[in-house]
Automatic annotation (TrEMBL):
Keywords: Collagen, Extracellular matrix, Secreted, Signal. Pfam families: C1q (PF00386), Collagen (PF01391). Residues 64-75 have a biased composition (Basic and acidic residues). Transmembrane segments: none annotated. It comes from the Eukaryota. It comes from Seriola lalandi dorsalis. This is C1q and TNF related 6. InterPro entries: C1q_dom, Collagen, Collagen/C1q_domain, Tumour_necrosis_fac-like_dom.
Length: 247
């Protein structure tokens, strides 16, 4: 059907157009006569002296075919240059409160403490003496050595220490709180006709294996502390305030 329409369209567009140089022929009534014999004139031409020029015009709009299939996608082009940053957008609305997280691991608290007493009096000798105790009130994890009379640091940190003694009538009282071999604080009372309670306290920064103990001064003077089997007059106490490294 498309072929028939094409042929009809071509036929309707064909036109006979005379050549531009062709001029209209004048014909007289005597032009059809034959020339006289012997005149040498050529007989007149019959019909058209020139073949008409045929020009074909085609209307391309009626030749459009059916729409073809979609072609393959082309290769993506190169990325263009990055444009300038846009303006900051408005702040969004506040979101809903999230769910509570799981509970964390409990903090491990470290402890170290002792409190000991002595029920016997003690007099000075020719050499220094460590004050040894015979009564235990508190001794966490055995950090205080009852046989040697010394606290052994197992947890580094800051410690508080306190010592209480009872003086002896007419005798001098002269002791030191020791950290290893260093004298850190003195407990002193002058000779008097009345005995009194005497106390000393301090805080110390300790490292592992440091020792803290009470030392009675040697016999350069009449030096003594009093106690008895009924009451506890002499006590030595200490505890950890804060560990150097919290676990």
């Amino acid at each position: 059907m498309l072929g028939v329409l094409l042929i009809l369209s071509l036929c309707s567009l064909v036109a006979l157009v005379p050549p531009p140089s062709a001029a209209a022929l004048c014909k007289h009534c005597c032009d059809d006569l034959e020339p006289a014999e012997g005149s040498g004139a050529e007989p007149a031409a019959r019909g058209f002296s020139h073949v008409p020029e045929v020009r074909t015009y085609i209307n391309m709009t009626i030749l459009k075919g059916d729409k073809g299939d979609r072609g393959d996608r082309g290769t993506p082009g190169k990325a263009g240059q990055e444009g300038p940053s846009g303006a900051v957008g408005p702040s969004g609305t506040k979101g809903a409160k999230g769910q509570a997280g799981p509970p964390g691991d409990p903090c491990k608290v470290q402890y170290s403490a002792f409190s000991v007493g002595r029920r016997k009096s003690l007099h000075s000798l020719e050499s220094y003496q460590a004050l040894v105790f015979d009564t235990v009130f508190v001794n966490l994890d055995g950090h205080f050595d009852m046989f040697g009379g010394k606290f052994l640091c197992r947890i580094p940190g800051i410690y508080f220490f306190n010592v209480n003694i009872h003086t002896w009538n007419f005798k001098e009282t002269y002791l030191h709180i020791m950290q290893n071999d260093r004298e850190q604080a003195i407990v002193y009372a002058q000779p008097s006709d009345r005995s009194i309670m005497q106390s000393q306290s301090l805080m110390l920064q300790l490292e592992p294996d440091d020792e803290v103990w009470v030392r009675l001064y040697k016999r350069q003077r009449e030096n003594a502390i009093y106690s008895d089997d009924v009451d506890v007059y002499i006590t030595f106490n200490g505890y950890l305030i804060r560990a150097s490294v919290e676990e």
